[in-house]
Amino acid sequence: MLHYSIIQAYSTFLRVVVQFILLTHSRELLRASNTGQLVLQVLGERARVIEWHRKQPDMALLAAIEAGRLGLVFPTDDDSLNVNVDSAKHVNAPAKDCVPHLEYLLLLDATWQEARKMYNQSPYLKSVVKVGLQPTHASIYPLRRNQLEGGLCTAECVALLLEKAGEAGLAQQLTECLKGFIER
Question: How large is the average pLDDT for residues 125-139?
Answer without folding.
Answer: 84
